[in-house]
Amino acid sequence: MRRTTLLLLAVASVVLAGCDALGIETATAVAARKEAEGKAIGSACRHAVRSIESCFQSNTRASKAAVFAGWREMDQYMRDNNVVGMPSEEAPVEGDKAAHGEKS
Questions:
Q1: Is 33 helix (H, G, I), strand (E, B) or coil?
Q2: Residue 89 backbone zone (phi > 0: left; psi -120 to 50: alpha; other: beta)
Q3: Is 78 within a domain?
């Protein structure tokens, strides 16, 4: 009886230890990943010379606190290292196509 209990306990611990190998994420891992994604979004917005407000509007699913933290960290980094922002090329608006004589 005692051997079977030890055997079952050993098998259960091996199976439960394999959860990480299966890709099952814990709540803390999910929260850390979302925080990191939000900071990356904020950093990218700041480097692309976008305002924090437009960053919030275009990334509604990201945590505003994480996005702002990333934006602020990148702003400080860019100021400390004299990094010039790289504005992103936005898609042309419908009015711009008509002004350039393009057909839609």
A1: helix
A2: beta
A3: yes
